[in-house]
Amino acid sequence: MRRLWPLSALVLLLTTACQQQGSDDLQTWMAEIRQRHHAKPVNLPQGSPMPEFRYQAGQRADPFDLSKLSTIDPAALANSPQPDLRRPREPLETFPIDSLRLIGNLRRGKEVVALIQADKLIHIVRVGAHLGQDLGKVIAISDKTVDIDEWVEEGGGRWVRRQTQLVLQEKK
Asked: What helix, strand, coil percent values describe the chain, rounded to 5?
């Protein structure tokens, strides 16, 4: 153990000297960079002051009165179109529509199927299949698109339909 003490002291001394030399070079280089490149303050244009607005209710309706909100008639909701929320969900309905990617399609006779990639897996989709998180249903498959009919819930329990498409992405 006594023999190693002088050797370890020499290694410690040399390591400290090397670190000090490298640190001086670094400090010199940083000082040079600071002298050459200094930040210039950005002068932003002065904006015009906004005019003050004070709300005077007077004859106007109170915007915070909840009783003024329209109520939806439950009978009208019963007669409006709605999706079937009790049907079993399909695997592609767990993915948002914008995360699905149309890879291509296959045709056998008159039957056409689309190949859709979701989470690194490729799924075969036919007309009538459901996909996307907005209760989407495939209504048509063409060479470069898959047309989807989705249900979107509006406020108050009303449902509306919207059309969307998955488009084949051409490779560049």
From this structure: 30, 25, 40
